[in-house]
Write a structure and sequence with these properties.
With 188 residues, the protein is mostly helical. It contains seven helices and no strands. It has helices at 4-24, 27-34, 39-66, 68-89, 93-121, 126-154, 157-181.
């Protein structure tokens, strides 16, 4: 945590997880109440989302060889656009399903990007980097779910997804700024 590269990675990871879980925690009510999908279709979409995440994680390795921070920032930008797209076009069932599938695919790059960033920031202490990453993201997950709860009780489901999208976009901006100030260990 004393390394600037790790602190930037923790901050970007926390912000992106807050945005992710502000939305993900409330995806079922969004799809059922806003998009008007049946529970069976929602369940199928969860499987598609999960499969997309697996594919994204497989692709992530080759992207990280080109640059972890750039891959994280680019993927977070896409996730932000997908969340904002869901907020604005989520009433169209086929489009909501497509956006959700793409969200799973691209989140499959963002999620491991947080760990790889910290591992590359502290390559000689991988256990500590991994432990700090897990703790950081669990706290951020709880904060995101809490933010979503506040928004759900005081605004609309669309506002939840817009807020989540702009929060994820903030993580992408933070990563882009970080890339100007830090250098990570090179991946082979």
């Amino acid at each position: 945590m004393t390394r600037r590269a790790a602190r930037f990675g923790m901050a970007a990871g926390a912000v992106v997880f807050i945005g992710q879980f502000t939305a993900w925690t409330y995806i079922t009510p969004f799809l059922m109440d806003h998009t008007h999908l049946s529970s069976g279709v929602v369940s199928l979409l969860y499987v598609v989302y999960g499969c997309g995440g697996i594919v994204g994680s497989l692709v992530a390795g080759s992207l990280f060889k080109r640059g972890v921070i750039g891959s994280f920032a680019g993927s977070a930008t896409v996730v932000a656009a997908l969340l904002i797209g869901l907020a604005n076009a989520g009433t169209i069932p086929w489009l909501a399903g497509l956006l959700l599938a793409l969200w799973g695919l691209v989140w499959g790059v963002v999620n491991p990007g947080t760990l790889v960033w910290l591992l590359d920031a502290a390559p000689e202490t991988p256990e500590a980097a991994s432990a700090v990453n897990v703790t950081n993201l669990q706290v951020a997950l709880a904060a995101g779910s809490g933010l979503g709860a506040i928004l759900v009780s005081s605004t609309t489901l669309q506002a939840v997804f817009l807020t989540a999208g702009f929060t994820v976009l903030a993580a992408a901006v933070l990563a882009t700024v970080a890339a100007r100030f830090i250098t990570l260990a090179r991946r082979e």
